[in-house]
Design goal:
about 190 residues, alpha+beta, Immunoglobulin-like, 2 domains, four-stranded mixed β-sheet, three-stranded antiparallel β-sheet, 7 strands, elongated
């Protein structure tokens, strides 16, 4: 079995390192193996291919764990916030990276009380976002949401953290990641 971790075609992204390339390489190899399994008509060969797929999944998990341990993703992620909000996004960082998951943390300051349509202060906070590449193009399958269900009142002056996750279907497309872009709920609902 080939090791994906040393593939010469991997891209070293300024913010996400080689994580997107590793996700993409393993995704492609696993897709090919799953295709072989579907097309296989021999039961014994199918069983062997299924074992190889399991080994490939294990290898992916180990390779990515080793990569992020040796190459921590510590740079703040560039971002573009929505204008005129009741809060300020101060920073966005990778919180944790593992096989199939890229968890990011938004550090937010609540500038004024955030109220619901009935005048009560909201207790949960959401940031909707997507990723763009270096050409300013939306990266496919990256629209998602960050939140934190602490059930805490969103009052002026509060420093708050919200968390969101991109999974493999997103990160495998992020070799040219350039920034996080905050979007409104309406754009999120269209996904």
């Amino acid at each position: 079995m080939n090791s994906c971790g040393n593939n010469a075609s991997s891209v070293d992204n300024e913010y996400l390192g080689k994580l997107p390339s590793l996700e993409k390489q393993y995704y492609n190899q696993m897709e090919e193996k799953e295709k072989e399994i579907k097309e296989c008509t021999d039961l014994e060969d199918s069983f062997t291919l299924s074992k190889e797929l399991k080994l490939l999944k294990d290898e992916k998990e180990n390779t990515i764990a080793e990569y992020v341990t040796a190459n921590p993703l510590t740079k703040s992620l560039p971002f573009q916030a929505l204008p005129e909000t009741q809060y300020t996004i101060k920073d966005i960082v990778v919180n944790k990276a593992s096989s199939g998951n890229l968890n990011i943390k938004f550090l937010v300051t609540i500038n004024e009380d955030i109220k619901n349509k009935y005048g009560g202060i909201v207790k949960n906070f959401f940031v909707y976002y997507k990723a763009k590449d270096s050409k300013g193009v939306d990266i496919p399958k990256t629209i998602t949401v960050a939140t934190n269900f602490k059930n805490q009142k969103m009052t002026a002056g509060l420093e708050y953290e919200v968390f969101g996750t991109w999974q493999n279907k997103s990160t495998k497309n992020m070799e040219d990641f350039a920034k996080v872009v905050e979007i409104d709920r309406a754009e999120y609902d269209k996904k």
